[in-house]
UniProtKB/TrEMBL annotation:
It holds the Pfam family CDP-OH_P_transf. The chain crosses the membrane at residues 30-47, 85-104, 142-162, 174-195. Belongs to the CDP-alcohol phosphatidyltransferase class-I family. GO terms for molecular function: CDP-diacylglycerol-glycerol-3-phosphate 3-phosphatidyltransferase activity. It comes from Amycolatopsis rifamycinica. One of its GO terms (cellular component) is membrane. This is CDP-diacylglycerol--glycerol-3-phosphate 3-phosphatidyltransferase.
């Protein structure tokens, strides 16, 4: 009696990435979503009742969760594509919201705000162009991360600098020094992202 050769076992393919809904409910992404939800509240606190103390607390909470979500994503092995999008989006929205509020209140001059806003506008065009051609957004650079860190350190100092207290007198020069430093790094990182986008598009086949 002939016996049929056993069929080879099917090879398991790579595990599919969880759906966006499932990704949204892991711990790091919940922290990122909380940060995003805090942006309009932060803007209202600065421009509405001008509750700088509460705005400062929310900004510190954002900075802490920004650090924590990356750590937790690695510790819990919960790194996801959604998290890679949410984290920089929250950073940029907080920076833009702070710049707008500080400009309206006269805390920082327009010549600091305009280059940073233009940087975001140019990067937005680059990202849309890359996506249209089938490319991922430019990779985050250490200079970009450093620029964000410096600005997120500068903004609380600028809030503390409001008023005539001794704390304000100490925080004021520190805040403005970090703002200028962070702004230069932020614009320079934008230039590097544009170079990344240009190099990617140059290597793409013509449509």
């Amino acid at each position: 009696m002939s016996t049929a050769a056993p069929e080879p076992a099917a090879q398991a393919g790579p595990a599919a990435e969880p759906s966006l809904l499932r990704q949204a409910f892991n711990v790091p992404n919940i922290l990122s979503l909380l940060r995003l939800a805090g942006v309009p509240v932060f803007l209202w606190l600065l421009l509405g009742p001008e509750e700088d103390g509460w705005a400062l607390a929310l900004l510190v909470f954002s900075a802490l969760t920004d650090w924590l979500d990356g750590k937790l994503a690695r510790w819990l092995n919960q790194m996801s594509r959604l998290g890679q999008l949410l984290d920089p989006a929250a950073d940029r929205l907080y920076i833009l919201a702070t710049l707008i509020a500080f400009l309206v209140r006269g805390i920082i001059p327009w010549w600091v705000v305009v280059p940073l806003v233009l940087r975001e506008a140019v990067l937005g065009v680059c990202v849309l162009t890359l996506r249209r051609r089938g490319f991922a957004p430019p990779e985050v650079t250490y200079i970009g991360k450093g620029a964000t860190f410096v600005l997120m350190y500068a903004f609380p100092c600028l809030l503390l600098a409001q008023g005539g207290s001794d704390v304000a007198a100490v925080a004021r020069p520190i805040g403005y020094a970090f703002t200028i430093w962070g702004a230069v790094l932020y614009v320079w990182s934008g230039v590097l992202y544009v170079v990344q986008a240009r190099n990617a598009l140059r290597g793409a086949p013509a449509e």
